[in-house]
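Researcher: Structure prediction, please.
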Amino acid sequence: MSSILFSILAIYIFIVLGFVAKMSFKERIDEKTITIISVYFLQVFLTFWGLLIRPVDVTLLFAPSIYLFIIILVLFISAFVAKRLFKDKKEYSIAIIAAVIGNTGNLGIPLNIAIFGEESIPYTTVINLMNVIIVYTVGVYYYSRGTFNIKSSLINILKLPFLWAAAFALALSAYGYRPSEEVMSALMMGAYASIVMQLFLFGMYLYGTKISEISKKLTLWVMSVKFIALPALTFLILYFIELDSMIKGIVFIELLVPLAIANVNFASLYDCKPKIVTALVFISSIIFLGAIYVGIRLLEYL
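Model: Predicted structure follows.
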């Protein structure tokens, strides 16, 4: 237990370094440039490495399917309850979508490696792909308050190179391709570079976050959904499913991770109170430090 927690704290070192770097150099470091390098280049290595590290089988589809089912269920419940709590349309949108868009990539992948080892990578990779689809469809819809063109949203998904990399890697694996040790070493170098850069970028985004103007009711709602309702529902569903305990644990951790930076990106793009959303991401990242301790304890019962 202590070794896992130490590994998690080690992950946060890179987040702190990103925060300190942005605080020290401010505008001399551009988050957008780092994002482009990470998303369009390094994450391709991570995707290939994650999906070629073991042969593809049907169990690989279980994790994202369960993940999607739980997300949809929580979305329906949130939409029904939040409508009675939030009259402001923008706050209503944030209340519905923010908690379900988790940091499955930047934090979820390295976190599961720390807990379950490299065997978790194929599962976290496909869960992250599912999360990206949710972000670019449901996420965009709510943050734009229903004004965004669905066709354009789907086109944006198709522009992401790691989606095509995943399709190609899955095809290679299904065909029986097994990369040599040299190829896997090269892919691993790019994959870990991607993970470190994602954590570093996360810390940079957290710099400058302010929580002074945030609605207490909205904060309480989003954090309650994120760290109470969503984990409780996930645990209940996974407890009654016959599935490998590691896969259950991966799904549970991926649904426990704090709010994703993607929330900030789309809130800013569609002027849906981006400062408040940024503050929510920051608060969830702090609460997660305590929540993950409880989450790891609960893995024993799955």
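Model: The chain has a mean pLDDT of 86.
Researcher: Thanks, that helps.
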